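Hi everyone, sorry if this is the wrong subforum. Our group has a chain we'd like a structural model of before ordering constructs, and none of us has done structure prediction before. Sequence below.
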Amino acid sequence: MNRMFAGWFCADRFGILNKHSCFDVAEFNEKFPTAKNLKIADICDERAIELMKQNKPIVVLWSGGVDSTAIVCSFLKNNIPLDQLTVAYSAMTEEEYPYFLQVMKAQGINVIRQDDIPTYCDELRDCLAINGWCADQLFGSDIHRFNSELYNYDWMNGIREMMKVRRIRLTERSFDVIEQIYSDYAKRLGLNVKHFCEFTWMYNFGIKWSYVCEVQRMLCTSNASRECVVNFFETDDFQSWSVNNFENIKLHNVFKEPKWYKKELKQYIFDYNHDENYFLNKPKVNSRSTVKPEGRRVFVLDTDGYHIFQYKSKSEDNISALQQKISEKYLKHEY
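Answer:
Right subforum, don't worry. Here is the predicted structure as tokens:
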């Protein structure tokens, strides 16, 4: 399942599924959030004010996508002093949301282009480097971009078909085990999962979350830069909103109807910048900065801390072999 959704290992943050892994997984025991009928605009405002009160320079890592644009708007709506705010963006941003870039420049906001965002973040010190990680997990999963027709399939049929799309072959016995394990998982979380879109939200929210909430820190090479990292959407209130929104996920296939894609966040953005085209038409775009590292690396977080693995020689730069060697390090004894 990790291979289908993420391509790398992710632990279950609620600690239910990790016993089934071939890896020796650290103990996870987070409690499943309680659903609360909150307004996402209020949560954004409260989060921005909370961060501003820390009286540190604020650097927003802005891609032009809905999540990071909502973060920028949250600070501007709440009257952040302009000398406290920096908006860092890459070349991709100029293509994804050029209108808002020009708006910010006209307002005198400190916007700086950084085409290697991870390296830029790694050099930051004594500030809040704010990213949009965890927002996708609140709303569902972007796996539907591979085949949007599966959105409201029965959840097991959706898994079967998406496995084909992702070129993953399993036996009928394996599918039976998946159905048994994840039916129990949903039951223990108190979720009535019927549709594939509901299952993908559950996987993203419960399992892939453990990776995305740490990915920015894993990319850093020092504790000083890791201490700057802030996941804007990671708070308890955002998670409680997401659980409360679970029943609404099936209502609109957002990969076919862009106007419904993260509509609550786009409404929040529209209330600030009045960009109707963005509000009605902005779809999911994979917002990733252009990075040209010297060597390919593998990032790991274990009970001893953060680790970066890479070959000493570029001639040995085989990422698959490196991943295999690292995987063997964390296998359970019986494997």
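For your construct planning: DSSP finds 16 helices and seven strands in the chain. The beta strands are 58-61, 85-89, 110-113, 128-131, 229-231, 298-302, 305-309.
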